[in-house]
Amino acid sequence: MDAKTPVAVLVLTGPVRPGEVAGWCARVREALAGVTGGVVVCDVGGLGPPGLAAVDLLARLELTARRAGGRIRLRDASPALVALLGLVGLRFQTEGQVEEREPPLGVEEAVETGDPAG
């Protein structure tokens, strides 16, 4: 299984209720059953304002996926959600975001006149 090709896409909607977490985890387990290194994409655009309930859900989904031999990847994650996840020490692979060390397409470094060629 190609790590870039998802085995399933889950569309998460909010607000997140604690009683729903077990059902989402079961869906992740089911999607990754019999697949080694699979990726489940979680579309989080509909979660609403980020909060600790969303962080808890995503952490549990990632743990479930890892136990099943896979991972989750976030789609349509707001900058606020990514920041909150980072604040609590959780790093997720996200779709559509540029690598930290690479400039976005169309952005070039400026060269100061008078700088020696390096």
Automatic annotation (TrEMBL):
Chain segments carrying region Disordered: 98-118
Organism listed in the record: Streptomyces rubradiris (Streptomyces achromogenes subsp. rubradiris)
Domain MlaB-like STAS intervals: 10-90
Annotated protein name in UniProt: MlaB-like STAS domain-containing protein
Pfam families referenced in this protein's UniProt entry, alphabetically: STAS_2 (PF13466)
